[in-house]
Amino acid sequence: MSYLYEGENPAEEAKKSNHVQRKIEKCQKDRKLDPHVEEQFGGGRLLAYIASRPDQCGRDDGYILEGKELEFYMKKIQKKGKGAA
């Protein structure tokens, strides 16, 4: 557990080596995000599939929905919103 001390900024990132910085830049150069996923980032929400096993505390496995699966669940949410109103 980490604690904040006076004068520390919680948003400060850990310092990264030159190798790590170059590696991150290389990965981001070729990165293509689905427009629906970018839209979700802009809105501050992501649709994801989360799975956890019974009696397991503090650990969840899952993935961010994208492609046809994301479209399917977005349609379901829109239908549910129209029916509830």
Spatially, the strands of the biggest sheet line up as 1-2
Low-confidence stretches at least 5 residues in length (pLDDT < 50)? Answer: none
Using the coordinates above, name the CATH class of the domain at 34-82: Alpha Beta
Count the E strands. Answer: 2
Average pLDDT, to the nearest integer? 81
State the separation between the terminal residues, measured CA to CA: 44 Å
| Beta-strand percent range | 5-15%
Task: Tell me what you see in this structure.
The protein has three helices and two strands. It is mainly alpha-helical and 85 residues long. The protein has a two-stranded antiparallel sheet with strand order 1-2. The longest helix has 17 residues, at 68-84. The mean pLDDT is 81.
List keywords for this structure.
single chain; 85 residues; mainly alpha; Structural Genomics Hypothetical 15.5 Kd Protein In mrcA-pckA Intergenic Region, Chain A
List the helices and strands and how they pair.
Layout: H1 18-29, H2 35-43, E1 48-51, E2 61-64, H3 68-84
Antiparallel strand pairs: 1-2
A few lines on this structure:
With 85 residues, the chain is mainly alpha-helical. Helix content is 45%, strand content 9%. The chain has a domain at 34-82: Structural Genomics Hypothetical 15.5 Kd Protein In mrcA-pckA Intergenic Region, Chain A (Roll).
